[in-house]
Amino acid sequence: MSAGSPHGANVTKEPSPRLWPGDIYDALKRADVKQVAYVPDAGHKELILQCQADRDMTAVSLTTEQEGVAMLAGAWLGGDRGALLMQSSGVGNCINMLSVPVHCRMPLLMVVTMRGEWGEFNPWQLPMGQNTERVLHDIGVYVQRATAPDEVGQVVYAAAQLAFSSNCQVAVLLSQRLLGFKDWSK
Amino acid sequence: MTGESSGTMDRRAVMRTIVAHRGDALIVTGLGSTTYDAGTVDHPNTFCLWGGMGAAAMVGLGLAIAQPDRRVLVMTGDGEMLMGLGAFATIGAQRPPNLAVAVIDNEHYSETGMQATHTRRGADLAAMAKACGFAASETVRTEDELAAAAPKLFSQDGPFFVAIKVNTQRYPMSIRVRDGAYLKDRFRENLLGAERAFF
C-alpha cells in the first residue's frame, strides 16, 4: 500500500480491530464538527485518517496541543464547531491557553487518549497521566470518561452536546484500557 | 539594550494606517499593547485577546478556515508571537490564502518592564514565517514601506506575514470592554447574525 495520505502523513490505512475510532468520527459528524485539530497519537490514528479524508472537515496538524485550543476559539468566532484530539501528556501543554475558552465561554470539545494508567510501561508518562483529570477540573473543564469500547461514541456525542449547547469546555478521556497493552516488541 | 528599539514608527499611527484599509476584514489582536492600540479604533469585526499569550495567530487560523470568503488579519506583538512560534509552522503547512499576520514589533516586552525580546537580539520573525511556508513575508521600517504594505495585508495571497518595526513609546492602557464573553458574542452576532450566533 502506498504511504501517501493527506498532509503527507506517512501512515497507511490498515484494517483495525477497533470500532470505537469510527464511532468517534460518527459522533463528530452528528455534532456538525468542521475543524479537527490534532497532535497525533496511536489511539487516534484511524480517526485522524477519517477526518483527513472528509471533504467537509478541515484536519489541522499542530506543533503543540495549546495551538489547537486557540485555533478552535477562532473557529467558534467564525461559526465553526471543532474538536481537539490529543494524548493525556498534551493536556498539560494546554492549561493556560484554556483560560481563553473558559473566560470567553466558548465551547471546546477535547478527546484525550490516556497514557500513564492501564498497563503503562513508560514511567515518564505517569506524572501527567495520573493528574490529567485533576488539572482539567482545576482550570474549569468538565471531564467525562469512556472505558468500554461500546460506550465511546455515545460519550463523545454527549460531550459535544454539552459543550456546544452550554458554551462550556468538555474533555472526554479515553481510558488506556481501550487501547490495551502496547506491544513494544513491534 | 533596554528601552531602545531599531524601529522609529509610532505604534498607534501604525494601527490607524492599517485599519484605514480594513474594509469588511475580520481582525484578531494579541494581548498587551496591540490590544490596547486596537481599543482606540474599536470595531465589531475585531476580537481582542486579553489573555492566552501565544494564541493570536492560531485564533486567526481557525477563523480563516471558518470564514474562507473573508479576509482575516492577526495583529499582535513580538513577545506574543514569540510565545507561539509553532503557529508559523502550522499556518505554513495549512496555507490559508485569506490570512495575514502583522507583528507590531517594538523589540520589547513593554507591559512588564520593557525587557528586550529576542527580536531585539536578532531573531527575524519575517524570515521565520517565510521559512515555515508563508506565501510571502516582509519587514517594514518606514512610513513609505508601511503605506505600501498596509493594503497588501488585506489583499495579498496568504498566508502573508509582515513585521512592522515601531519605537518603544508607551501609551496609557485603553481600558474599554475587556469581558471576553461579551467580546465573543459581539463578534459572532455581527458576523453570523443573532439567530446563528446564539442558537
Features:
A: Rossmann fold, 6 strands, disordered N terminus, B: 199 residues, Rossmann fold, 6-stranded parallel sheet, 9 helices, 18% strand, globular
Describe the structure.
- The complex is a heterodimer of chains A (186) and B (199).
- Chain A is 39% helix and 18% strand.
- Chain A has a single domain, classed as Thiamin diphosphate (ThDP)-binding fold, Pyr/PP domains (Rossmann fold), CATH 3.40.50.970.
- By secondary structure, chain A is an alpha/beta fold.
- In chain A, helix 1 crosses helix 2, helix 1 packs parallel to helix 8 and helix 3 packs across helix 4.
- Chain B is an alpha/beta fold and 199 residues long.
- Chain B has a 6-stranded parallel beta sheet, with helices on both faces.
- In chain B, helix 2 links the parallel strand 1 and strand 2.
The biggest beta sheet of chain A is recorded as: 6 strands, parallel
Straight-line distance between termini of chain A: 19 Å
Estimate the global geometry of chain B from the Cα principal axes.
globular
Number of helices of chain A: 8
Q: Which word captures the global form of chain A?
A: globular
Quaternary state reads: heterodimer
CATH class of chain A: Alpha Beta
